[in-house]
Write a structure and sequence with these properties.
7 helices, alpha+beta, 4 strands
Length: 141
């Protein structure tokens, strides 16, 4: 099941309630806007699988990306939202967590840097510039 399918099957009021429960310090306004944008956005196929990294005791820790036949965890907060929507959700996550919680955890992760894709893109550009600056400093030494 893709994230788009989960979002489409999920009611905002349930998401808002779970969001307030899991992240009580967060305002839900920005999340409501993003949720509605996701309902309208077309998914783009992506080979990353949405998974949940858990603590040793099995409790949720963070949303991560996985690839087939690869045990590495990948940060996915900078992926375009259309690619998030095209990502499959790990079968183990679907078995352990309800759809609303999966959507809430993904919403939180995908908006970690900002509530619109332009802000996220700007952060990517700033990170790339910083890396380039570091690389050019290393080349001088």
């Amino acid at each position: 099941m893709t994230l788009k399918e989960l979002v489409s099957k999920t009611d905002w009021f349930d998401v808002e309630s779970k969001l307030s429960e899991l992240y009580p310090e967060e305002s839900t306004e920005g999340y409501a806007i993003v949720f509605n944008k996701l309902l309208l956005k077309q998914p783009k196929p992506c080979d990353i699988i949405i998974s949940f990294d858990e603590d040793e005791d099995g409790t949720f820790f963070s949303v991560v990306g996985k690839k087939q036949n690869d045990d590495s965890n990948y940060g996915i907060e900078f992926f375009p939202w259309s690619e998030w929507l095209g990502m499959e959700v790990d079968k183990q996550v679907l078995l352990k967590y309800n759809h609303v919680e999966i959507v809430v955890r993904c919403l939180w992760e995908m908006t970690y840097v900002g509530f619109d894709e332009q802000t996220i893109q700007h952060q990517i550009e700033m990170l790339e510039a910083a890396v380039e600056n570091i690389n050019s400093q290393e080349d001088k030494n």
